[in-house]
Amino acid sequence: MEIQTIQHIEIRQESDFPTQFFRLYHTHLLCEKGKISFLFNDQKMECIEGEFLFWFAESRLSGLEFSPDFKAQVLLVEKAYLMDNVPDQSWSIDAQLHSRTYPVKTALTEVDRTRIRTNFQQLYHQFTQENHRFYEEMLRLQTRQFILEMWHTFANEYERRKHSLQTGNLYERFMKLIPEHCMTQRQVQFYADQLHITPKHLNYLCKTHSGVTASAWIQRFVKERIIILLQNKHLNSTEIAHQMDFSSNSFFTRYVKKLLGVTPTEFRERMER
């Protein structure tokens, strides 16, 4: 099956999506009418009229349900192409981790929604201009502009969530602390100290709310961050180990081997196949 790098389509039901879209494409969806419900990382979520959602390719996504009046504008970008053109800056990692936790963006103004529609149209239009003498270069530039515009649109929501750690119950606060600190903090004790409880009590809360231990939750987020960093061709293994505050590159390599089943070098070699 030939994969079209970029698709801009209108969706009313699941059959309107391309086959296996959730495996092949990163999905950008602006809900124009009605609502869509789904399971994301085993959590029930929904996106209603006027909201936006973003699914990474190969997300743990299932149980899609559409209201009878549902309608949405969708832009699909082939998974490798989008990641290869992410602007190389610190915002990239934070924005990716935020979307992996909070795929639905709710606080949108009409200006935001207009910007999203325009952004969809401009990227897809550039994709169709195959006769342009500098087609590949122009499409890469437009893709990077697309990503920057999307980051700009959701920056306020990201910052709002980032500074909301003092609200919610202890479990919710723990789940908000992990993406903020997992880059350098991988021990349950750290998070228990932040919440002024014991590690045993934190594990009890996590098992009660989710059936998953605190250490397993931390490991999930650390794994996602390591994969994102290893996908960044501008960073070598030593730089990643330093960013994640590992005492040495060899310790980082052993940690990755235990977490992913392969070394950082082997992981990158598989990406190139």
Query: What order do the strands of the largest sheet run in, or round the barrel if closed?
Result: 1-7-2-5-8
Fraction in beta strands: 15-25%
Residue stretches low in confidence (pLDDT < 50, at least 5 long) are none
| Beta strands, count | 8
Structural class: alpha+beta
Q: How many domains, in number, for the residues?
A: 2
Report mean pLDDT, rounded to a whole number.
89
Report the helical percentage.
40-55%
Order of helices and strands: EHEEEEEEHHEHHHHHHHHH
Specify the CATH class of the largest domain.
Mainly Beta
Indicate the radius of gyration in whole angstroms.
20 Å
Shape: globular
State the separation between the terminal residues, measured CA to CA: 18 Å
What is the CATH topology of the largest domain? Answer: Jelly Rolls
Characterize the largest beta sheet: strand count, sense, and whether it forms a barrel: 5 strands, antiparallel
Give the helix tally.
Answer: 12
The CATH architecture of the largest domain can be given as Sandwich
Question: Can you describe this structure?
Answer:
β3 and β4 form a beta hairpin. The mean pLDDT is 89. This protein has helices at residues 21-24, 79-84, 91-101, 110-128, 135-162, 170-181, 188-195, 199-210, 214-231, 237-243, 249-260, 264-271, and strands spanning 6-11, 25-33, 35-40, 43-48, 52-55, 61-66, 71-78, 104-105. α4 (110-128) packs antiparallel against α5 (135-162) and α7 crosses α8 (199-210). It folds into 2 domains: 6-162, Jelly Rolls (Sandwich); 170-271, Arc Repressor Mutant, subunit A (Orthogonal Bundle), CATH 1.10.10.60. The strands form 2 sheets. The chain has a 5-stranded antiparallel β-sheet. The protein has a 3-stranded antiparallel β-sheet with strand order 4-3-6, with no helix packed on it. It is an alpha+beta fold and 273 residues long. It has 12 helices and 8 strands. It comes from Paenimyroides aestuarii. This is AraC family transcriptional regulator. InterPro entries: Homeodomain-like_sf, HTH_AraC.
